[in-house]
Fold these 4 entries.
Entry 1:
Amino acid sequence: MFLPKHTSWLNQIEIIFGMIMRKVIRRGNFTSVTDLKDKLLRFIGYFNEVFAKPFRWTFTGRPLQTGGLEKPGREALTVAGK
């Protein structure tokens, strides 16, 4: 399955990894892999408690309308079922 690099979920993953890198790993002092794991899990728990908010989906399921945005000399795009 091909998945382009610009997909929105991939951008969100990169943001999370960047935050973990800046806040936890960079300049961190870890005595073991277990210590690193514990600090990562504490950061994730803290982030979820303080910053995470539920996502409110706003998509209504209706198809997009062209709304007169056609270029001169071209026919308007037709929406399926109309």
Note: DSSP finds two helices and no strands in the chain.
Entry 2:
Amino acid sequence: MTAWIAVLIPLLIMVFALGMERLETRLRSGTVREDEVEDFLERARPDEVKALFRQGIGGALQMFRLRNLGKRGAGTRRGRPSGDGSRSTTNA
């Protein structure tokens, strides 16, 4: 009987430790900053709000960030000079 206890207790402790490590990893990757959530709640579109209910805050924030990156990328491309100005935009 003591042999079973001597084998089972370390195994149970290892299983518990591995489970807690997995939980900690999930919690660490799912953490979002408060200002991100406030920004999302102020400027979210209806499809992003639906994603909040379907996928949780992680999926909704991912959609929100992709939309914001698209806006920033388009804004910087328009404002950038075209180089030496030798290119023509009309077809000859």
Note: Residues 36 and 91 are 45 Å apart (CA to CA).
Entry 3:
Amino acid sequence: MKNGDEPRLTVPRSAIHTEGAESYVWIVRDGMAKQATIVRGREIETGVEVTQGVKDGDIVIVAAVVALKDGLRVRTDQSGSTFGKTQTAGTK
């Protein structure tokens, strides 16, 4: 890392949804969709830094989330899911 930058947990901008003052993403936990409230950090080239709400390795659903609700069973294969693409949250 250059200039003392620490690794940052990032998610794509398209994965973040907002209702009022609250931001959230959809993650896959135990084979089910779960809405996870997040705290946004800086906007960076690779997406948006997330300081709370998801952890490194969480599977974040990034597409076709209109049909999702908490507890809905989903199937993922890292190239897509029943309801759209997924991406593993990670540090950049």
Note: Residues 1 and 56 are 18 Å apart (CA to CA).
Entry 4:
Amino acid sequence: MQLVGMSLLLILLSPGPGVTPMFMMSFFELPKGVPQKLDCFRSRFYWQNEQHKRKYRLVQWEIMCQPKDQGGLGIQNLEIQNKCLLSKWLFRLLNEEGMWQELLRNKYIKNKTLGSCEKKSTDSHF
């Protein structure tokens, strides 16, 4: 495959609004096995040729997902991306002021630390 073609594939695999479900990943933790299945499809998309024949993968997917300065191609690891997006909400809850932060603090945290909060069966998924 030509260098231009591989570069285009990297652009298509990079995160964007239509490529991966980033919005849903920012609200919900992906179930076990889903990131691996998505990575399987992404890997197949990258290595597949026009005739849809199976090709040998020349590099492990984990290496391709490493940052460019570490020898990878910079393709985002979906498990890490999911945890980072979820952590962003936690950071906003602890460090910003707003209506939703106040609501969650009053309902769930009250006078406790965040680490001592326990999930109840009646709590919202959010």
Note: Residues 45 and 114 are 41 Å apart (CA to CA).
